[in-house]
Task: inverse folding
C-alpha cells in the first residue's frame, strides 16, 4: 500500500493490464481478476480492487489514459467533489467539481495541470494545487478567495500503472492527493516536495501470502535498480534470493516470525545484489488487510542504507577505540597511583597485581630479582587470580605459568635479558612438564589460554617480570596492542619498584645511623630500665628521635628524650650532634633548665638543626633520702609517672618552646619526689600521633594502661604491653619509648 501511494512516480510499474508473466495458473487467474475489476469504466466493484486503492489513507483516483476519464475515486477522493461527481467523468470536469485550481486560483482546465499531464501518461512526482469553493461553483475566485485557497493545499502525485501491449488493452494511471492544510502549509511545501523526490528512489514490493512461499507479485523499477534483478527474475519468487553467506540468521528469523504473526517489522540486514555485491538493506514490511481483517498482501519497502550503516559502524568503532583508550589511561593512572603509594617492593608488586586482575588478565604473577651476599635469586612477590581459590595454583606453578613447546622460558628471558614475550596461544599440555604430574595437574587446573610476559625495568636495570594470563574458556586471546599496554604498565611498575628500593636503601642507612647513635641501655644501681626504638614504616623517612641515659660524675643519673624536626638523613645527623652537645653539658653537672638553654644557644648559633623537642632530667638523692627528679621540657610530650600505688601523673610542669625556636624565654625546671616502685615513662610524639586519632586520647590510653598493670610487672614486658595497646604497626614517624622503675629507697650518692 505504501509502495503505490508514495512509490516511484517516474517509472512504469508491473503490467497489471497486459498478459501476466508465466508464474503459473494461480497467479494468471489473479492477475486477470484484477484486470477485469479495473477495466470497466462503470459498475466498478470496489471490493475487487487491490487494498492499496480503496483503503489508502490519502485521496486516490484511477484515470483511464485512453479516454482521459476518472473511472474510480476512493472515499477521500470522492469527498473532494462533495459526492456531486458521477463517474466516469472527464478529468477537467472532475477537477472543477473538486474545486482544484493552481496556486494563483486559475482552474485546472486553463493550465498545464498535474492531473492533465497524468491523464496524458506523464508521471508527476509531486506538485501543489489549491482547493477553492468558488472554483467548485464554476466562477473565478476573488482575491480574498484566492488567498484562502493558498491556505488549503493538496499535494498531487501521479504515475501510470501499466503500459498497453496492444490497442485493445487499457492503460491506467494512479493519482494520489495528500492534504496540506492549516497554518504553515506553505512552509511545509518544500519539505514535502523533498520527501516526494526521495520517495521516487524507494524500492517497493508486494507479496502474496496466499501463495506457497509468499512470492513477490509486484515490484517497482526502483527494486530492479537496487538489486540488479530484472522483473522476470523475481516475480513468483520469495525474496530470500537477496540473502547471502553473511546475512544475519537472527534478522531473518525475526522477519519470518513477524510474517507468521502478521505484524509489521523493520530490519536492517546484509543483502546481495545480482552481481554478488553486498549492501545494507533496511526492509520495512507491512501487512495489508481486506475489509474482513484478513491479510491479503505484504507490502515491503527496501532502502539501501549502506552508507548510513558504514558511518554508524565507523562511529561505533571510533567510540569503542576512544573508550578503550580511556580505560587504558584510567588503568595506567590508577596503577601508578596505587604503586607510588607504597614504599616497599612487596607493596608495589601487590598493588600491580591488584590492578591488572581483572582489568587485563584472569591471573597474574610478579617476580622480583633480589641480591643477597653477592648472589641473585628470584622471589614471587605477588600473585592474583580472578577466582581466589586458584591463587595457590598460580603461586605453585612457578615459571610454568607461561611455558612454550619449544623449551623457552619467557619469564627467565624477561629476567635475564629484558625480552618481552607475547604467547597468543598456550599449549594444552606443555612438553616441558609432561613428565611432572604435580605441575601438569596444576597447569591443567588453571587452563591458561594466552599469556604476556614483560620485564619490570627502570634506569637500565631489570628488576623483575610481570606475567599476565587469560583462562579458558572465556579468556581473550592477547594481541600486539595488549603487549604494548602491558609494557607501558611494566615500565611504570619498574620505576615504582626502583624508587621503593632506593627508599629502602636510604631508610636503612638512616636507621643504621640513628641506631648507631643510640646508647645501649646502661645498668643503673637501684633502677630497672627498658627502651624501645621504632622506625617508621608507613611512608615517613627516618627522623631525629633519640634517647640517652648516663651516670654523671656527681652521682646523679641523667636521662634525655628528644626529637629533631625533619625526616631524613640530615635530621638523623643533627640528632647525633645535639645528643653529643647535651651529653657534654650534662656531664658538667648543670641543672636541667641550663642544659636545655645551652643546647638552644648552640643550635641557633651554629645552625646545627632547624628545631628540636627534648626533655632532660636528673635523678638525684633527695634531702632526707629517697629520690628527686628534676626536669625541663622544651616542647616535648610530657613524661608520665606511675606511682607505686597505681596512680598516674602527667608531668606538665614548666613547658617551654622548642630548642631553636627562641631565646627570649628563660627556661625553668620542675622537681618531683619519687620513691621505691615509682615508674617514669618518656616517649616521643611518634607514639601518640596516628592517623585519625587524637594525641590526647592516645596519651590517656598510655596512662590507663600504666595504671592497669601490676606494680611489679617487668619493665620490658610493660613496654611491650604499651606498644601492643597503642597498635604501632604502620607508624608514620619514628618513635622512642623509655621506661625506668625505681627499685630501691636510696638514691644516688649526694653531690
Result:
Amino acid at each position: 500500500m505504501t509502495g503505490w501511494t508514495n512509490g516511484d512516480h517516474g517509472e512504469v510499474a508491473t503490467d497489471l493490464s497486459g498478459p501476466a508473466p508465466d508464474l503459473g495458473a494461480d497467479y494468471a487467474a489473479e492477475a486477470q481478476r484484477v484486470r477485469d475489476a479495473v477495466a470497466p469504466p462503470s459498475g466498478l466493484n470496489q471490493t475487487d480492487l487491490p487494498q492499496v486503492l480503496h483503503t489508502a489513507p490519502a485521496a486516490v483516483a484511477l484515470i483511464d489514459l485512453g479516454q482521459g476519464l476518472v473511472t474510480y475515486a476512493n472515499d477521500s477522493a470522492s469527498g473532494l467533489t462533495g459526492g456531486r461527481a458521477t463517474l466516469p467523468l472527464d478529468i477537467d470536469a472532475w477537477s472543477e467539481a473538486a474545486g482544484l485550481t493552481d496556486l494563483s486560483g486559475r482552474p485546472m482546465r486553463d493550465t498545464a495541470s498535474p492531473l492533465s499531464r497524468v491523464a496524458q501518461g506523464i508521471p508527476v512526482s509531486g506538485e501543489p494545487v489549491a482547493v477553492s469553493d468558488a472554483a467548485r461553483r464554476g466562477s473565478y475566485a476573488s482575491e480574498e478567495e484566492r488567498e484562502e485557497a493558498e491556505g488549503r493545499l493538496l499535494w498531487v502525485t501521479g504515475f501510470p500503472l501499466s503500459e498497453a501491449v496492444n490497442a485493445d488493452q487499457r492503460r491506467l494511471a494512479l493519482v494520489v492527493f495528500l492534504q496540506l492544510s492549516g497554518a504553515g502549509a506553505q512552509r511545509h511545501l518544500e519539505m514535502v516536495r523533498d520527501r516526494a523526490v526521495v520517495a521516487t528512489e524507494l524500492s517497493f514490493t508486494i507479496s502474496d501470502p496466499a501463495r506457497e512461499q509468499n512470492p513477490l507479485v509486484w515490484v517497482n523499477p526502483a527494486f530492479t535498480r537496487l538489486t540488479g534483478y530484472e522483473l522476470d527474475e523475481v516475480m513468483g519468487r520469495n525474496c530470500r534470493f537477496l540473502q547471502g553467506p553473511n546475512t544475519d540468521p537472527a534478522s531473518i528469523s525475526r522477519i519470518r516470525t513477524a510474517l507468521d504473526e502478521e505484524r509489521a517489522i523493520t530490519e536492517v540486514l546484509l543483502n546481495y545484489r545480482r552481481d554478488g555485491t553486498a549492501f545494507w538493506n533496511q526492509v520495512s514490511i507491512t501487512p495489508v488487510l481486506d475489509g474482513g481483517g484478513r491479510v491479503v498482501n505484504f507490502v515491503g519497502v527496501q532502502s539501501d542504507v549502506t552508507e548510513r550503516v558504514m558511518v554508524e559502524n565507523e562511529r561505533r568503532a571510533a567510540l569503542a577505540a576512544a573508550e578503550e583508550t580511556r580505560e587504558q589511561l584510567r588503568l595506567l593512572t590508577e596503577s601508578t597511583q596505587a604503586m607510588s603509594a607504597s614504599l616497599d617492593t612487596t607493596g608495589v608488586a601487590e598493588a600491580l597485581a591488584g590492578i591488572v586482575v581483572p582489568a587485563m588478565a584472569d591471573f597474574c604473577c610478579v617476580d622480583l630479582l633480589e641480591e643477597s651476599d653477592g648472589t641473585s635469586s628470584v622471589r614471587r612477590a605477588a600473585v592474583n587470580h580472578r577466582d581466589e581459590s586458584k591463587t595457590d595454583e598460580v603461586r605453585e606453578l612457578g615459571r610454568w605459568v607461561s611455558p612454550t613447546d619449544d623449551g623457552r622460558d619467557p619469564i627467565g628471558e624477561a629476567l635475564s635479558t629484558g625480552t618481552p614475550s607475547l604467547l597468543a596461544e598456550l599449549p594444552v599440555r606443555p612438553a616441558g612438564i609432561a613428565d611432572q604430574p604435580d605441575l601438569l595437574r596444576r597447569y591443567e587446573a588453571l587452563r591458561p589460554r594466552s599469556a604476556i610476559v614483560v620485564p619490570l625495568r627502570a634506569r637500565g636495570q631489570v628488576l623483575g617480570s610481570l606475567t599476565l594470563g587469560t583462562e579458558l574458556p572465556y579468556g581473550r586471546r592477547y594481541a600486539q596492542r595488549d603487549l604494548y599496554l602491558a609494557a607501558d604498565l611494566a615500565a611504570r611498575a619498574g620505576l615504582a619498584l626502583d624508587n621503593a628500593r632506593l627508599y629502602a636503601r636510604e631508610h636503612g642507612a638512616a636507621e643504621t645511623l640513628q641506631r648507631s647513635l643510640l646508647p645501649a641501655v646502661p645498668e643503673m644501681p637501684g633502677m630497672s630500665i627498658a627502651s624501645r626504638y621504632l622506625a617508621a614504616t608507613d611512608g615517613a623517612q627516618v627522623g631525629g628521635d633519640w634517647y640517652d641515659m648516663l651516670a654523671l660524675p656527681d652521682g646523679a643519673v641523667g636521662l634525655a628524650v628528644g626529637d629533631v624536626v625533619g625526616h631524613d638523613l640530615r635530621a638523623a645527623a643533627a640528632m647525633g650532634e645535639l645528643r653529643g652537645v647535651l651529653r657534654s653539658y650534662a656531664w658538667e653537672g648543670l641543672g636541667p633548665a641550663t642544659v636545655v638553654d645551652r643546647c638552644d644557644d648552640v643550635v641557633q648559633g651554629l645552625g646545627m638543626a632547624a628545631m628540636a623537642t627534648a626533655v632532660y632530667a636528673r635523678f638525684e638523692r633527695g634531702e632526707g633520702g629517697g629520690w628527686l627528679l628534676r626536669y625541663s621540657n622544651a616542647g616535648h610530650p610530657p613524661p608520665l609517672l606511675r606511682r607505686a600505688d597505681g596512680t598516674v601523673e602527667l608531668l606538665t610542669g614548666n613547658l617551654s618552646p622548642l630548642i631553636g625556636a627562641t631565646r627570649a624565654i628563660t627556661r625553668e625546671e620542675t622537681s618531683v619526689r619519687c620513691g621505691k616502685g615509682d615508674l617514669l615513662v618518656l616517649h616521643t610524639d611518634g607514639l601518640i600521633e596516628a592517623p585519625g586519632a587524637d594525641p590526647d586520647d592516645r596519651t590517656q590510653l598510655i596512662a590507663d594502661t600504666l595504671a592497669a598493670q601490676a606494680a611489679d610487672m617487668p619493665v620490658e614486658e610493660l613496654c611491650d604491653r604499651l606498644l601492643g595497646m597503642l597498635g604501632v604497626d604502620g607508624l608514620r614517624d619514628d618513635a622512642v619509648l623509655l621506661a625506668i622503675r625505681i627499685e630501691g629507697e636510696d638514691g644516688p650518692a649526694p653531690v
